[in-house]
Amino acid sequence: xxxxxxxxxxxxxxxxxxxxxxxxxxxxxxxxxxxxxxxxxxxxxxxxxxxxxxxxxxxxxxxxxxxxxxxxxxxxxxxxxxxxxxxxxxxxxxxxxxxxxxxxxxxxxxxxxxxxxxxxxxxxxxxxxxxxxxxxxxxxxxxxxxxxxx
Length: 150
Fold this sequence. Notes:
- By secondary structure, the chain is α+β, with helices and mostly antiparallel strands.
- It has one domain (3-132): Ribosomal Protein S5, domain 2, CATH 3.30.230.
- The radius of gyration is 16 Å and the shape is globular.
- The strands form 2 sheets. The protein has a 5-stranded mixed sheet with strand order 1-2-5-4-3.
- It starts with a strand and ends in an 18-residue tail after the last strand.
- The chain is built from 3 helices and 7 strands.
């Protein structure tokens, strides 16, 4: 049965919000439409589909806990996180919030310690700045570090 987590961040009159409902279960084999995040860890998306950026950020949010989640899969089974729904109720939309919502769901419902991902409101820049717990460039494989500005 899917359990819901409500992610909320408010600062300076601006806010981010996402409601996510997820069910976690083990299976002998993953659902055919599931995304493989890492080893025996899979993400199943809602039957009605999602915006592609939301799906990408959900997979990234799950990958932040990949080692801890795979360790929970007993024996040779697969751990599936099945997203039943994802909504952004009355807030500024930023697809990155999907990752933070799933991170919060994993922490609350699976009792896995927070990974350290966070957001802050950059008032001067009029934007939200995300910190991905040591991951400088999400969705990049072994990219060299960016040069320091002079």
